[in-house]
Design brief:
elongated; hpI Integrase, Chain A; mainly alpha; three-stranded antiparallel beta sheet
Amino acid sequence: MKLVWLLHKRVNLWNQEAVKKFIRKYDWHGKRKNNASYAYRNWCHWKGFDYEVEKAREADSPLPYIPTETELDQLIAGCNRKYACFLQLLKESAFRVGEAMSLTPNDFNIDRQICTLNKPEKYSRPRQFKMSNKLTTMITSFIRRTNRNERIWNLSYESMHRTFRNRRKSLAEKLGNPNLLNITFKTFRHWKATFEYHRTKDLLFVQRFLGHKNINNTLIYTHLVGFDSEDNYIVKIASTVE
């Protein structure tokens, strides 16, 4: 309801035409305008009357930045052990940062090297992935020192993000590589999705790996890599990670 509160501060919510005019002219991109319109419509329904949404045109989202694997590995190597483990997890799993931060020791089967995500964000699907030997070794010590139901990275997002930004800036200056400054937590997810599509050319596999319910959300990764016209999609969705 934050958007409704913002509208309330600037226009009379009981005047639908005034609200519609404000949304139309306010300096928001198309998607933001639509979100505000839908939020206002929900408020109207709550108050017992209808509102017809005037849908704005949504511009195409810019393509995400995809770094090299070497650049990701440089960031990982430049962090302390616990942050390095977190970034390695993001790199291999393509989990969203909030999903990774929700993990507890109960979500890991070290013997089988499997990590299970049962609390996905954005209404996506639960999923598993097979950890590398490197990640398994990195995370085992932290699992042993953490209570079974306690989060392994028991910090706030702001704290994690602040530490990451500071370390990223320091490494970019030390290595003389300003491209590192373009890497965010979300970049690891974009890189992994692009890598898996490049490796398999299997859009449905990537959809399942990312937990997307709508394949349209996965299609962006087909624009980030190029293939010859002879290449075909391969459909080989596995029912398990083994």
